[in-house]
Amino acid sequence: MRITGGLWGLRQEINRQATIPLGLEQMERSGVLSNLRIAAGEASGDFQGYRFQDSDLYKQLEAVAWEHARQPGEPYQTFAEQAAALLARAQRPDGYLNSHYQLVKPDRVYAELEWSHEMYCAGHLFQAAVAAARAGLAPQLVEVARRFADQMVRVFLDGGHDGVDGHAEVETALVELYRLTGERSYLELAAKLIDNRGKGLIPETGLGPLYAQDHLPVREADTAVGHAVRQLYLEAGVVDVALETDDESLMECSVRRWEDMVATKTAITGGLGSRHDGEAFGERYELPPDRAYNESCAAIASIHWNWRLLLATGDVRYADLIERTLYNAFAASTSADGERFFYVNPLQRRADLVEDAYLGRRRGWFACACCPPNIMRLLSSLGHYVATARDNALYVHQYMPGTIDAGEFAVSVETDYPWDGRVMITVTRAPATPWSLMLRVPGEGYTGHPRTWQVGEQAELELDMTPRLVFPHHRIDALRGCAAIERGPLVYCFEQADQDVEDLALAEDAQLRVVHAELPGIGRTVLIETDALRVTEASQGLPYTPHHLATSTGTTATAIPYFQWDNRDGGAMRVWVPLA
Amino acid sequence: MRITGGLWGLRQEINRQATIPLGLEQMERSGVLSNLRIAAGEASGDFQGYRFQDSDLYKQLEAVAWEHARQPGEPYQTFAEQAAALLARAQRPDGYLNSHYQLVKPDRVYAELEWSHEMYCAGHLFQAAVAAARAGLAPQLVEVARRFADQMVRVFLDGGHDGVDGHAEVETALVELYRLTGERSYLELAAKLIDNRGKGLIPETGLGPLYAQDHLPVREADTAVGHAVRQLYLEAGVVDVALETDDESLMECSVRRWEDMVATKTAITGGLGSRHDGEAFGERYELPPDRAYNESCAAIASIHWNWRLLLATGDVRYADLIERTLYNAFAASTSADGERFFYVNPLQRRADLVEDAYLGRRRGWFACACCPPNIMRLLSSLGHYVATARDNALYVHQYMPGTIDAGEFAVSVETDYPWDGRVMITVTRAPATPWSLMLRVPGEGYTGHPRTWQVGEQAELELDMTPRLVFPHHRIDALRGCAAIERGPLVYCFEQADQDVEDLALAEDAQLRVVHAELPGIGRTVLIETDALRVTEASQGLPYTPHHLATSTGTTATAIPYFQWDNRDGGAMRVWVPLA
Q1: Contact B542 A578 (CB under 8 A)
Q2: Are A400 and A357 members of one domain?
Q3: DSSP β-ladder status, A577-578 and A504-505
Q4: Fewer C-beta within 10 Å: chain B N or C terminus?
Q5: Residue A411 and residue A350 share a domain
């Protein structure tokens, strides 16, 4: 799929013009390239940043590669070639590559995998290399990746080293590198790393074995736990290995955890991870809107996992969750101008914050900069997640304007989704044999049947875009007595820029009015206006009384799409609003 | 006040017979005494435990001293004398005393106050010494304390060192030592330390300046923030200094923060601190029942602060909060047998915990053992917090059986409170001049007027013990749509041992029935039985739907006093129950 316009076309353009250049600048400023130059013996100085600093470059390179595939040209091509050459020079003769360990702890290579992120960084290198190969860019990157992967195979597969990286990531990357190269030992190593997890092979870090999903063997764990991004990257690898090795029990355990996670641990935005401490999932139904972590990387990792499950099963529920995550948890991670990022994505920001004043405001970069380049690589490769083809059927999972080429069958898509529900698909290439054009109806499934198509023929889908109130499951304590507004794939929120948010309440039968608008700082949007209530309650002494003391008066309120929040001010925001 | 029976008399007896002996044993087992022996040059080995390990002994000694005052005897007297002698031998010639810094970092004394806890430990030593002096026990302890305090005065007051300990505690202790000794430089040092806070003199720890209340000068801060125990110990010192120096603006700032804290940051149990990360207060109205921290030490520190405010102002609201905290947040911190302790006191424990399985169960001891000896010293000194006398008036703030001696006026108290609301007070000594017997009616104030009393005359108070539903302020998002049960000073909870807790709901007009009972593992109690509802709701796919899907059926439910939870099983518990 080539995206040519609409919300995501604009986002891709901003990503190319504003976000990626900002990221490339940070590769110098935050010491990422300097670390590698020192490791290559071409510069002097101290290692800068976290021990996983190399991974910033790898994700950045992956974004550059996918950009090259979308639209070849400078300065991205030169950056990729120079970076690949630098990596080749920094790489040890045996293939190992990690600037932190080479510079700071050369005698501790693979000796402290619980925290080292060595395999995690390697995984991001492999993913960048696969992207470069698919984009026809910087072939040296695949050479570097293969030398490193071969070294890992020698140590961890042939050499009998049973180490497991505390941060899963390399598993899915190894399978991708296997798919690219056909080198089966990469797949075998991925399978071994997955089966080694949960056997107590990861030394205690002080955060407990759940943090790194080492509490139970992968096949036995029923629920997503611990550090959310670790769990989610692990799941992508689990599905990859299960698919490539036809391992049904491995696939089943991942689906089982997916079902549990969706039913009990997923925010309405698709956000994942309820806790700041340990950046962890938390307990079932523990879904606080204010203290939710919902790391941007977790949304991206969730899309990776769901995409693999969708490819493996064809089940629409994975495409549904990708859409929810994409338009809400993921889309919110970047400002409208593409220059500021959320690391944490809560569903509520109170007024007059004291301890959390730093939260709920996007920032230009982070000392731990895992999220921004992760956002960039997903945006650059977003076209990959839109459609699939199989058995003379084209499945369109997401709706955005552009062209989808499935070989002998191709279509163009015109739509103003998510602002409007109409999707018009025009066949641009068709064989004489029948094809099915399978269009996803969110929450329902795929509609379509085999038929022969003429070039120029059109199929039209009209998705219901009536705004709706939604209510939480009764076990979600933190959302009890509240409702949220959705329209199409978009979750809405109330922001301080439009009204006082703290004491707002909605009637259960509130009429929701759709208003198309163009807002300063935000751009194109669809607002939801509604009659609402403003609650007043004295607050002196303890806030617990034998009588309900709150009273309310009528007002109106305006909601904006959640992903567009914090583009105007730093005020209060809430997705879930009390019912009157 | 000498407590002679009832709930708190029993608790004091268990404290003496079971808890303190267990603590003394831990002084050996956890290396506390060994550290000091090594510092005294009488043993060899490595320092064990946290850098504030000495403070465990000091709090333990304080408990032993108050026990000696209640009932002199062995083995407590010998323990205290031997410990005081050991401390004297371990103390540096210049008066400095801290086994961690003397053994591990002798060149870093007072050089890393942001984390060192040197003054914090000193404060606990001073408090133990004051207790010992008042109990007529181990006079060597006051000598040790004075030598250390004099050294601190030389360094921080005369020497111009502007350091501030990251953990407030020494301020209130210095004022107590001043009260005992009349040495004014201790008071001056306490005042200086308080005024130095909030000036950026505490180096950054990575947790931000709010963590240690260094974000604003004490007089300017409007709300309690950061590490709850630090804030609360600081407030005790603030009130002490304000009172002793007649500093009105200092007193006012503490009262201002108290009012804000009570209205927006206090759990119904009196628990304080909403966050695991940073053991912090959190934002206004951020009061999650499940992830509340409510450290046992915070409840104790709150009682210290409230007691000082009560002494300074005579305002009944401080006595009310002491009662709430005492019977709920504090009482819950110890098991019925006195041998297990909570560090964290949440108001909800879910069923089938995975990540939090370690929470919501009391434990025998902790690596960071600040809470258990803190509990012991408050229990041993509980009689101090019951009554005050002034201007020929005896104020009785809390109701427990025993004798109150105000010099020329004395009474005995008979009551079965909190199980029953009747309080009978008999005058046991009275002068010819009129005295007022001022009895606190919770939430209302003090009742009484001057009159002459005859020995043997009685006053009776009948407190309303009708159980009641209470509702949270509408801004407390985490408790919306819920109610809790209270009876007298007791907050109630529903525990898994009595029924399935997860799907329970209450009608807003639920009839609450009082049942006196004796339960295995718990002992004497008063249960509340009520008609209730059991909610059923399908849970597949995302837990957000456009329609309310929950249905409910009738059931009955039994609540027990919150402080008695976790004495039977490790199951679910909740204080706040959804309204049907």
Answers
A1: no
A2: no
A3: unpaired
A4: C
A5: no
